[in-house]
Predict the structure.
Amino acid sequence: MKILIINIKELVGIDENLDPFVRGAGMGKLITIKNAFLLIGKGRILEYGSMEHLFIPEDWKKKGIKVIDATGKLVFPSFCDSHTHLVYAGSREIEYVDKIRGLSYEEISKRGGGILNSAKRLHEATETELIGQALERLEEITWLGTGAVEIKSGYGLNPEDELKMLRVIRELKSLSPLTIKATFLGAHAIPMEYRGKQHEYVDIVINEMIPQVAAEDLADYIDVFCDKGFFTTDDTERILMAGMKYGLKPKIHANELALSGGIQVGVKYGALSVDHLEYTGDAEILALQNSDTMPTILPGAAFFLNMVHAPVRKMIDAGLPVALASDFNPGSSPSGNMQLILSMGCIMYRMTPEEAINATTLNSAYAMGVSDEVGSIAVGKKANVFITVPMPGIEFMPYAYGSNKVDTVILNGKVL
Ligand code: NIG
Ligand code: FE
């Protein structure tokens, strides 16, 4: 069945040149059509344009076209959330209270809390339980406008549990209408028993985990938490080289806690994205300028941990692209609400609504390797779009933060 959306107040995110991403001043340009239509069929975008140019055949009902009248409403390409850890067991609100009382993320981690706390709970959970919890989170973000999501392992921290997590993600790919990519993050934290002999844990990641992940074809990408108190740049290089031998492209956690050298390592190994970037100086910006690596900001984590903000304005003004993602996880960002991330991009980082919309759609699609398929309105792309509630214009989307402004969700050409 074809879907024809008519009388769209504004169709947002049109991308005639099929750009893989936008950068610098280009991020401030968001192409839209006012009073538009959008035609969808076989799961894809077939046609779009101004209502003046729309011809509806008289026998459209016979032809099996479902017409949706979007008077007063906007249509957006679905959000792409290129960085999440949304497979996890339970929650960590007790640490949240510790944080409010003054403990830092690093202090909580040093005493065995944080990621290790989630690893313990994940170990105790069955695959079925993990799938159940993750499906609820996927359902929630679907209705908030997300159409594609990357999910990392990294709460296993031993071969058996890392594989368990990745098998759960594989199952989610078949159960959910969302476009899902899986990232292997065995190097997320150093288990207690390897403290002081970290290289032994890195050896296990390289010699045991990566070959098994590759043998079962469980991951699309490989990640390392390259930062102060976690994995060094040397560890990161070794792990990335091992993963790349099996065709796993890097996407790394870098410079959240210090000027760790993570950005440069990511660029050196052609990472698809480097994420967090609170500590980004001129040398890091220079390294990124000569690369195809997407700098990805995670405003939810910066907000929740009350961290310094990445110099996003400086990065865009230096001609860089920027993507925004949620980091949905139980420790540093327990929300996958990309509408909120859009607002945070504008409020906390002084991004214009146009820049922030590009950063949560096309650029974040690139950051998870799917910008040829989703992330913008282009003929032939997957029909992953949402219709908003009635609103005055695109600025209203980040402005009216905290409420759900998604009215109708269409994924793979189907109305949910
Ligand atoms: O991206 N920074 C490292 N990892 C996650 C946090 C994971 C956790 O605390 O459970 C992040 O913020
Ligand atoms: Fe993360």
